[in-house]
Structure formats: structure tokens, C-alpha cells
């Protein structure tokens, strides 16, 4: 059966990009699938947060999950470090993944910058831990923003190499299903996980520069809308968002050379759960002086209730902690089952 897994790092205030690209999709998928949603605190160690920041950040992402509408009873919500099997499987995958694969990761190149020698080994090996997060549940689908596509390809590469290398033993143990790799058929233990990257919000761009991704770590506050921004902040940031002097085009072919305009229309479409075409049917030919206030009203209407609920939830830290502990207990059972198999497959237990 399909199984959804995804994670969000507790590395700062959640942005509208995180919400539309990931969390809003998590909420939609839980209607039709079994889902596991994780606050990936081990990943956050790659930016060396203070212990206090990490605790607060972790609770705050958990609060955002719940406030957005994720049901932690029907589905599993927890923080990564409580389930030690993630780290255990990540070591196995460090031994499966190749330096060359990780060297090609654009996120590592961007985050390490010029001073590669000083980048942490954890930042480099990040995608192997991410593959472990997903595959420790043998998850089949992962909803993410477009920026994570490359890491998901690596997850498939890891699964494929593991299946190929250990195919015979997987077969002897009766733990695999037949899987095609090129011309060959192997006994596959790990599934070939599919990314779920669709809709108008796969890549929300900075409000100051339509060619840059909206990001928690952008130094400009005006570049992003935070999930916890006040109504005034949201309206101000949209008013100041970079645009051009032309009115909105009549159809979606008319955004050539206008990434900022296209981004605002995409945000409107994602918030109102329609398409870019539908938004242009209403606003095509209109000026930004008309469109921006409408977008600000819509953003406030959709985001304010989430921010209010997050604040309410964060007043009762004991409740959030018990949700995470309960989720971790349930996740551990599933993760341990995989690790038991994996250790048999590898020859670590017999
Ligand atoms: N701008 C975006 N548009 C659509 N989706 C996005 N995501 C992030 N930015 C956008 C998606 O949000 C999920 C959680 O992201 P994350 O916190 O795990 O890591 P990230 O991608 O590194 O997020 P940021 O905001 O860009 O943080 P920094 O500034 O630290 O790099 C993922 O599914 C991601 O695709």
C-alpha cells in the first residue's frame, strides 16, 4: 500500500514556501493515505543551532503541522531524533552512497559555499540521512518542494544499489519483491520512492527576486512571508513585493521575463486552491494595485488562523511533547521492523 513520508527542518521560521510547497500538501494527502510526518531535528544540526533554538524550533514545526490540520492520531507526527533507527540506517546508506553522487548535490554546493574544506561532514552526508528517513519506513511517496527533487533521486539511487548489491541474500531471506533494474530483475527490499511535486506551489520564489527561492535563511525579511507574520506584516510584504509596471497577462503564456508577477499569481492560485489560468481569468489585464491587495487579503485569511492556532498550541508545551513522544513510539515499531530486516540482509544479525 502507498505510504507517505515527509519532513521539515526546525531551522527557523516557516515560510509561505514551506507551507504551500510542503505542509499544505501533507494535510491534503492525509485524507487518502497513511502518512508519517517528521520534524527532522538531526538534519538541523548541520547548521549548529543552540540547544534552546533546537527545542523551540522543533516544537514550533510540530505546532505548525497540527495547526495546519494534520491529525496526529490517524497519522504519525514525531521528531526524528526520538527514533534512533534513522541514524542507524543512515550509516548503512553512507556505505551505499558514492562520494560522486553526493558531490553533485546542488544544495550542498550552495550551502557549503566557497569554503568547502570547512563545511561539516554532516552537511555533505545530509542526503544519505534523508534517504534513511524515507526508506526506514519503506515509504512510497514523498511530498516536497521542487528544491528536494535531486535528493529524492539520490534516495532512489541508494535504494536501487542496495537492492542490486544484496539481491541474492534478499531473495534467500524471502524479503524482496521482483524489481526491474535496466535489463535485470533483482529482489528489491526498498521501494523506488516517488516524489510528489505538483500544483502551482512547487517552487515559491523570493518576494524581492523572482529568480531566487523563498527561503527561511534569506537575510531579507521582506523576501519571505513567515507563517507567524501578523496581518500587517503580510500586507506590507506583499505591497513591497517586487513587480513590473505591466498589468497581469490574460493567460499563463504571458509571463515571459516576469518571474515576480508569475510568482504572485502562483501564490494566489495555491492559496485559493485553483490554477494560474483560473486566477488570470479573474485578474488578467488588471494592475498590481488591484491584484496585490486581493492577494494580501487572501493570504491573511488563510494564514492567520494557522498562526493563531500555533500560538495557542505553543502555550501548552506538554501537549506538543506528548504528541511527539506518542508519534515516535508508533514510528519506532515500524522503523525497528525495517532495521531488523536490514541487519539480516547485511549479515549483521543472524
Ligand atoms: N520556496 C519554496 N517553495 C516550495 N517549497 C519549498 N520548500 C522550502 N522552500 C520552498 C519545501 O519545504 C519543505 C521543508 O523544507 P526544509 O525546511 O526541510 O528545508 P529547505 O528546503 O532547506 O527550506 P528553506 O526554507 O529553503 O530553508 P533554508 O533557508 O534553510 O534552505 C521541503 O519539502 C521543501 O522542498
From TrEMBL:
Motif ('KMSKS' region): 213-217
Subcellular location: Cytoplasm
The EC number(s) this enzyme carries: 6.1.1.2
Residue positions binding ATP: 9-11, 17-18, 145-147, 204, 213-217
Binding site for L-tryptophan: 133
Entry annotated with the keyword Zinc: no
Motif ('HIGH' region): 10-18
GO terms under cellular component: cytosol
PROSITE patterns: AA_TRNA_LIGASE_I
Matches recorded under Pfam families: tRNA-synt_1b
Top-level taxon in the UniProt lineage: Bacteria
InterPro entries xref list: aa-tRNA-synth_I_CS, aa-tRNA-synth_Ic, Rossmann-like_a/b/a_fold, Trp-tRNA-ligase, Trp-tRNA-ligase_bac-type, Trp-tRNA_synthetase
Enzyme class, UniProt record, top EC level: ligase
GO molecular function: ATP binding; tryptophan-tRNA ligase activity
Keyword Lipid metabolism: no
GO biological process: tryptophanyl-tRNA aminoacylation
Annotated catalysed reactions: tRNA(Trp) + L-tryptophan + ATP = L-tryptophyl-tRNA(Trp) + AMP + diphosphate + H(+)
TM region positions: none
Keywords, sorted A to Z: Aminoacyl-tRNA synthetase, ATP-binding, Cytoplasm, Ligase, Nucleotide-binding, Protein biosynthesis
Role, per record: Catalyzes the attachment of tryptophan to tRNA(Trp).
Entry similarity comment: Belongs to the class-I aminoacyl-tRNA synthetase family.
Assembly, per entry: Homodimer.
Name of the protein in question: Tryptophan--tRNA ligase
Classification lineage: Bacteria, Pseudomonadati, Pseudomonadota, Alphaproteobacteria, Hyphomicrobiales
Amino acid at each position: 500500500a502507498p505510504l507517505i513520508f515527509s519532513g521539515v527542518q526546525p531551522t527557523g521560521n516557516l515560510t509561505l514556501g514551506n507551507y504551500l510547497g510542503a505542509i499544505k500538501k501533507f494535510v491534503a494527502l492525509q485524507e487518502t493515505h497513511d502518512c508519517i510526518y517528521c520534524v527532522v531535528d538531526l538534519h538541523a544540526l548541520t547548521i549548529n543551532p543552540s540547544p534552546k533554538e533546537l527545542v523551540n524550533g522543533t516544537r514550533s514545526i510540530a505546532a505548525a503541522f497540527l495547526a495546519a490540520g494534520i491529525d496526529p492520531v490517524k497519522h504519525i507526527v514525531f521528531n526524528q531524533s526520538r527514533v534512533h533507527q534513522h541514524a542507524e540506517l543512515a550509516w548503512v546508506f553512507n556505505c551505499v552512497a558514492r562520494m560522486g553522487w553526493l558531490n553533485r548535490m546542488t544544495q550542498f554546493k550552495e550551502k557549503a559555499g566557497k569554503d568547502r574544506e570547512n563545511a561539516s561532514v554532516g552537511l555533505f552526508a545530509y542526503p544519505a540521512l534523508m534517504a534513511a528517513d524515507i526508506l526506514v519506513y519503506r515509504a512510497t511517496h514523498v511530498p516536497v518542494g521542487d528544491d528536494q527533487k535531486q535528493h529524492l533521486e539520490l534516495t532512489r539511487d541508494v535504494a536501487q544499489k542496495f537492492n542490486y548489491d544484496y539481491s541474492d541474500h534478499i531473495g534467500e531471506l524471502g524479503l524482496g519483491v521482483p524489481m526491474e533494474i535496466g535489463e535485470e530483475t533483482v529482489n528489491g527490499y526498498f521501494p523506488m520512492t516517488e516524489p510528489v511535486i505538483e500544483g502551482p506551489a512547487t517552487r515559491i520564489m523570493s518576494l524581492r527576486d523572482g529568480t531566487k527561492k523563498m527561503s527561511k535563511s534569506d537575510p531579507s525579511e521582506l523576501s519571505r512571508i513567515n507563517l507567524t507574520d501578523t496581518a500587517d506584516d503580510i500586507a506590507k510584504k506583499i505591497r513591497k513585493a517586487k513587480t513590473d509596471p505591466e498589468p497581469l497577462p490574460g493567460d499563463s503564456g504571458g509571463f515571459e521575463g516576469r518571474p515576480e508577477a508569475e510568482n504572485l499569481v502562483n501564490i494566489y492560485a495555491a492559496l485559493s486552491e485553483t490554477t494560474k489560468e483560473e486566477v488570470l481569468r479573474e485578474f488578467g489585464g488588471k494592475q498590481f494595485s488591484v491584484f496585490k491587495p486581493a492577494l494580501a487579503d487572501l493570504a491573511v485569511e488563510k494564514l492567520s488562523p494557522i498562526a493563531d492556532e500555533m500560538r495557542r498550541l505553543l502555550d501548552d508545551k506538554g501537549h506538543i511533547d506528548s504528541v511527539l513522544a506518542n508519534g515516535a513510539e508508533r514510528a519506532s515499531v515500524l522503523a525497528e521492523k525495517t532495521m531488523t530486516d536490514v541487519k539480516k540482509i547485511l549479515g549483521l544479525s543472524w
